[in-house]
Request: fold
Amino acid sequence: MITAIFDLDGTIADTICDLGDAVNRGLAEMGCPQHDYDTYKKMVGNGARKLCERALPDDRKSEAGRLHELFRQNYAENYLCKTKLYDGMADTLAALDKAGVVLAVATNKPQDFAVSIIDKLLPDVDFVCVLGGTEDRPPKPDTAIIVDILSRLPDEKNQVFMIGDSNVDIQTGRNAGIETIGCAWGFRGREELEREGADYIAEAPADIVGFVTGKKDQA
Reply:
């Protein structure tokens, strides 16, 4: 059995504009400076609470809880305004599914938003589960989310890949003792993925199929 576990933000879908807009609205309400989308690409990856903390000025970090509340309100109203799948991702997931690969999502994005985005953008893809950030499970790079996913699968020999665009995803895979595929089109870029030691680096979603099925050599 082969299992492919995907990150969501910066891997399956480009979500940065909706994320950035939601945080910026909260920052504006609090009278704080806002940020551009490229800056947000460096802030995301460790969950919504950490994103809000990073977005605040140094002298207002203690107000991260308030910004997180505003973020959730704003994001709930606008989380699919600008978010879209990366080109080729739907075909890649369909090809993996057709090849018999078990598919799952492991993201630090809040669970409710993660499930809703996947349901709306990929209604025909059969994921064994979509797991996001919750209060009772530590975020990636902790391996708890990987353990949770694998516990739902048959107890048999299983080759597992963690697929994502950031150092957090590569660290998660390494911590879990599974192979990693870095996505160069995402928020962080190839250099960070190489530096973190990704086993494979995909330049386009279609490359993932070859890496997972063994039909493409390591980068």
Q: What stands out?
A: The first strand starts at residue 2 and ends at 6.
